[in-house]
């Protein structure tokens, strides 16, 4: 055998990844065809554009969740970070469009602090990711309600409406930003030392430490980046919705996990891709639309998501036993 031959294990993983992407792509195509058969108006350009515009903020927060899941983490605070970003945007600015860059800077800094606290609790204090981020979710909710007294918050600059619903040459602005973020994250994960380190740490943290990688430091960084992405997602979501309240993004903590799991991001860490995560978003959005098209109760969406999480958790438990 040549010294350049690909190891059998690596070849098997590569084949498995390609098959997984093929299956996800096939699921997207199949669900789209089914939706078009049930509702001929589904495939109109306007409807597709509306669906993608609505799905883009979810795609951003799924990128955040996937990044954290790659290092064996989970973040239940992402939706609360989204809502907090929206409230923060109204707390420190006026309705002047010139303030938008300052809003983004403030949200990025706030996200870095929140993610840093989550990461510190997980890596330095050995708190489980579930409990650490659940505590952060509750803390942020309390801070928001204390600040706003439970009422809707102030107004955002009108430019945010364009960020949430506007178009560039027919392509939604928020979708364009999602694509750029996905490309950046994908390049980082696939072609940089940091990206490879993330996969190694997620796959085997102890082995990573033995080869000189700081699992704690890189995991902390992933939590920081995840919260920053969640904050950005919150700004684009509030731009789409058009109003700011304490519950902006509610439910996205579950949706982001479900979409990432559908897209092949492992709850056990070390496995998954940006492309798979985004395909998971499309599948989840298509399933939600099919529920509406079929006239099923909206609660059925929660049932679907719960079943997906149960199946994924069962698979994770089986793998860890093996």
Automatic annotation (TrEMBL):
It comes from the Bacteria. GO terms for cellular component: plasma membrane. It is found in: Cell membrane. Its main location: membrane. GO terms for molecular function: transmembrane transporter activity. Keywords: Cell inner membrane, Cell membrane, Membrane, Transmembrane, Transmembrane helix, Transport. It is a multi-pass membrane protein. InterPro entries: ABC_transp_permease (IPR001851). Part of the ABC transporter complex LsrABCD involved in autoinducer 2 (AI-2) import. Probably responsible for the translocation of the substrate across the membrane. This is Autoinducer 2 import system permease protein LsrD.
């Amino acid at each position: 055998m040549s010294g350049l031959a690909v190891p059998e294990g690596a070849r098997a993983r590569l084949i498995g990844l390609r098959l997984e992407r093929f299956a996800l792509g096939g699921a997207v195509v199949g669900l789209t065809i089914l939706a078009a058969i049930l509702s001929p108006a589904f495939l109109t350009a306007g409807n597709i554009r509306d669906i993608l515009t609505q799905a883009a903020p979810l795609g951003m927060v799924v990128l955040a969740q996937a990044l954290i899941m790659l290092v064996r983490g989970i973040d239940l605070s992402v939706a609360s970070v989204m809502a907090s970003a929206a409230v923060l945007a109204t707390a420190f600015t006026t309705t002047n469009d010139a303030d938008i860059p300052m809003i983004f800077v403030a949200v990025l800094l706030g996200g870095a602090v929140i993610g840093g606290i989550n990461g510190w609790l997980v890596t330095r204090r050995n708190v489980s990711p579930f409990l650490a981020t659940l505590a952060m979710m509750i803390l942020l909710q309390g801070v928001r309600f204390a600040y706003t007294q439970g009422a809707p918050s102030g107004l955002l600059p009108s430019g945010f409406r364009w960020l949430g619903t506007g178009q560039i040459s027919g392509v939604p602005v928020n979708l364009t930003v999602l694509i750029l973020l996905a490309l950046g994250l994908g390049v980082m994960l696939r072609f940089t030392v940091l990206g490879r380190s993330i996969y190694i740490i997620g796959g085997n943290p102890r082995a990573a430490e033995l080869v000189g990688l700081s699992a704690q430091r890189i995991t902390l960084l992933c939590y920081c980046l995840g919260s920053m992405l969640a904050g950005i997602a919150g700004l684009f979501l509030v731009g789409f919705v058009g109003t700011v309240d304490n519950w902006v993004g509610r439910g996205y903590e579950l949706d982001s996990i479900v979409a990432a799991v559908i897209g092949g991001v492992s709850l056990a860490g070390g496995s998954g891709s940006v492309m798979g995560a985004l395909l998971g978003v499309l599948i989840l959005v298509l399933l939600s639309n099919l529920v509406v098209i079929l006239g099923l109760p909206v609660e059925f969406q929660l049932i679907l998501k719960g079943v997906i999480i149960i199946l994924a958790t069962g698979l994770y438990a089986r793998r860890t036993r093996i």
